[in-house]
Amino acid sequence: MIPGPNDDRTNEKGALKYFDQVPKQWDAFYSHENRLKYLINKLLRKALYQRYQLTFDHCGDLNGAAVLDIGCGTGRYSIECAKRGASRVLGIDFAPRMIEFSKNIAKQMNVDNIDFICADFLNYPFDESFDIVLALGFFDYIKDPGPVFKKIAQLNPRKFVASFPRFTPIWGVQRHIRYNWIKKCPIYYYNEKQLYHLYREAAFEEFQVIPCGKGFVGVAGKK
Fewer beta carbons below 10 Å: N end or C end of the chain? Predict the structure, then answer.
């Protein structure tokens, strides 16, 4: 794991500032509305779409499910869950403009069985449980993932699907320069051994770590 600045508050402010500036750019990776851009992104960012497919393959039948999407970004995963029959979808993100963008996209698509809230996951007082918990593109920016894993486990999901970046010499170094140094938005990396430890410490009874592009997709659950 390559550390960013030592001050956690500086890390959080840097990530918040970055994500509040880029909702349209991030949404373009998933948007089908501009067919040309979608096809180009699908070609150049193949792993992103593999991750999307893996996520919904492992979520299975979503009819009647309650879904929590942590770090929901522009809401594309949340909206897809709602479209696939989830009865309750909650997207949570700490970037106000991401949440505003998500609400607008859901409204444009006439998806109404979904709520988006601007809040920090660890500090939010959940008073419900969820069948499915998603955290895609979220742990990249989490310095201490242990408490997050444990709080997710407390929500007792039957399926927890998350993505994790893996450090590689060329991609990792350029990403470190681009995010940590230039954008002041630290990135954190994971390996399989570390992920196994996190799942066990959070008392997940079943889990698997699947290589996907330059990272992993983790699938866990409780019996």
Answer: C
